[in-house]
Amino acid sequence: MNVTNDPGQPDFLPPFLPRLLLVDDEPRLLSSLYELLRDRQYQLVTATCGVEALEELDRQRFDLVLLDLRLPDMSGHEIMDIINAKAMDCDVIVMSGEVGIEAAIGALKRGAYDYLRKPYSREELLKTVENALQQRRLAVDNQSIAERLENSEKMYRYLVDSSPDIIYTLDHDGNFTFINDRAYQVLGYAREELLGRHYTMLVHDEDLNPARYAFKHGEPRASRSVELRLKCKTGSVGSDRTFNNTLMTIPLKALGMEGQTSALLGTYGVARDITDRKRAEEMISYQAYHDILTDLPNRMLFKDRLGLAVIQAKRKETELAVMFVDLDRFKLVNDTLGHVKGDELLQQAAQRLKDCLRRGDTLARQGGDEFTIVLPELRDRSDAKAIADKFLETLQKPFDLDGHIVHISASIGIAVYPNDGENIDELLRHADIAMYQVKALGKNGHAFYHDSMLDISHQKIALEQALRRALENGELEMYYQPQVDVATGRIIGAEGLMRWNHPQRGLLSAGEFLPFAEENGLMLPLSDWMLDALCRDVLLWNQAGGDAIRLSLNLSPQYLDRGDFFEKMRGALTRYGISPAQIEVEITENICIRNPQYAIDQLNKLCQLGVSVAIDDFGTGYSSLAYLHRFPIHTIKIDQSFVKEIHDENGHYPVILAIISIARGLGLHLVAEGVETGTQARYLEANGCTTMQGYLYHRPISLASFLDVLRAQAQTLLELQGREPAANIHAARA
Q: Domain EAL spans what residues (predicted)?
């Protein structure tokens, strides 16, 4: 019979109350036992035989079983055997009327909590039940505490082993007593290889002294830090790594020989791997003092080394040389082949220069295509001259830029300490002045600084200032070289050329000051002036009553690159009320290669506006026919260097013929420049070029003279037509 509760008990008992199984085949005894325990806040279940008891044990969990040994279907010992076999979590109190000791021994052997002999007293039973349940509660609490401790230990171990830092403890002798798994991940050492070993086995040899000082000198509980390099295990990934060690001296408890507890001092440490941070800092520091493209020292590091070299030279009373190297023709290569090839050229040139130097010399990139060199401990100037000669020789060899063979040279200026300067700035400035003197004399050479060069440098500064004043004072003027149709003898256009009416030096041609203007940032304001002057002169001719004539304007690459060029052109045409058809823009073919798509976009805008485009000096640059076909070009101008080669009107000049054929094939207008002899004119005309400009016809002339020539031409045409000259002056139509 299974009894769970009675009318005196609530229908639902709290689930945390102890559950007891009462097993006895005597109904009277079972009922009496039930009544005895019912007021004790227990959940009670009864069974009258072994089968019922086992069914209840299988159905639910019990804290305590009060078990009679003598049951009708099986013994209590058999039930206990089954409980043990199934590892049921419950305690058993055996109640039996047998007087033999064997029954009690059998029950206790099977794990019974206690053995009560019938008849038992009420107090004895209640006390035994309460003690059994109390012990069980203590056991459960202990197990819970043990599980929490175990989980806490697992969590601690997980956190320690998962830490990104190496965590360790040392005994008072410096031997490892604990170290986490991070040491294996970073250094390659397993925990077993380090425990009991001295910490110095991990420290880099060069860092042993600071390590010993940091590990020995510390107050208890006082934190201190030391940066050390630790060794990686041989064969492990990576090299020695750098760690920031935070240390603390702590008391460690140890058990003495006779059981007393004694306090010893040990070390608790956390080692944080800062290798990547150190490498990043080193990289940042390296990049701050080195040129990224060539990996050479930059200007800042060069000055530091030059300063040290000057101090050393002063102490030893020796000479040193400073060189300033500028690569000739680099800008042309950079503009035509692009910046990627230009960078590659700089890298190759830097390596060649570096290969020429002695040990102890310093090569640095100053910026752009300029390099500086310091040569310490010179025996005499011939040492510097020998290295400069090596530079020139090695740079004259061709450079292969992915199939593009290019040639460059160098201009080298040399200043010697102490004669040419006793400090860094003087030496660099004088070497720079000497380099520019080489450039002025034709480039591809070297020169030692001397005081006379300073006067030349001052003259350049004066020239720059004077050129700026020329813009303000109206000293610039446009000259025009007519373009003639040889078939009719008529002037059909003219090329505008800038002249400078210098107050002291007289009339200067563009070639005498425009290259200097390009180097000093004056090309843009000069081009603005030239565009305005050209439109103004066209307006003067138009106002004089002449028919429309087209004037051409040489366009600087710097001017085209400026984003507002198109707007400036359109603004000038609108301001002066000039037809765009009267303006032609001349560009060099190298502009087309440097940034083809940008140039196409800019020139297309001009064409849409109505301005025509001509390629000047055709055949002297690096243009390709593919680009030429894509560009909105109206005119090709044969460079005078090809025209000068014509000495026989019956000769064969294939470059001239090829250019004429290209123009004819593309339907372009053709102009020959620099025509100075009749032989040249007849050859060109015979082969299809009928528009020419050059000294054979006209030199560049001022606007007033140009207008006079146009008036004379108009007068001549009227006379040939047998008519009286009209009141207005008419020029030949373009």
A: 460-714
